[in-house]
Amino acid sequence: xxxxxxxxxxxxVERDEKIVYLTAYDYLTAKMQExxxxxxxxxxxxxxxxxxxxxxxxxxTMDDMVRHCQAVRxxxxxxxxxxxxxxxxxxxxxxxxxxxxxxxVKEAAVDAVKLxxxxxxxxxxxxxxxxxxxxxxxxxxLTPQFMGQxxxxxxxxxxxxxxxxxxxQAGLIEEAGAFSILVExxxxxxxxxxxxxxxxxxxxxxxxxHTHGQLLIYADMVGLYDNFTPxxxxxxxxxxxxxxxxxxxYARDVRENKFPxxxxxxxxxxxxxxxxxxxxxxEVE
Length: 285
What we know:
magnesium ion binding; 2 domains; eight-stranded parallel β-barrel; pantothenate biosynthesis; alpha/beta; 3-methyl-2-oxobutanoate hydroxymethyltransferase; EC 2.1.2.11
């Protein structure tokens, strides 16, 4: 498998070929996604909830992101990987944003970074990161790092006025130099309007079928994360149930002394060595 580039993604858009986008936070998951032919992997700050057990994404640090991006890169060396910029790793200044983006590229070998928001300050951050030589993906709509401002985890752009603002934000983000935009949690009509007016790939998560590609949180779509399931998620498996059943069966086997089975799950020792072992133990005793 050859790693795709932004040129490949633009060509896919021209051919009306959908871009497959998933999150991953660890080596094994990334390895399986690359094997499945996923085009693009996001190491999202959603790892805070999915992997680290936080209630929100806010506690995730740059060190967390670097460590998990490194693991994903090792698992998917030939896949285009995007590292999320965690909360307060870019909000303070353009200089801070460039430094944080640089860490993800230099220390974790990501191909691009993603940041949330489409206001003037965020546009400045996108320009600065882009000018430093790092590819940037924008993120608008339902932006978890702006929960207080958008009124919680709910769909955005449901009024015509709000929808127009999102379309305008997308245009400004493109002008600022982003190579792509993730649109989250908006009505299908809004996702379509943004996509039709864009000159860069538009990826959607809960933004309808008209975007150039689709993203899902992998733990949602395989049934691993059951704390909350967004409306836009389709479950392709119930891995969580499979794991619970396996752990339960293992616990039962251990308690009933059915595992390990001698001769099946154990290493052998010749009878001669066993006799010598017993003799030596008697001498020690």
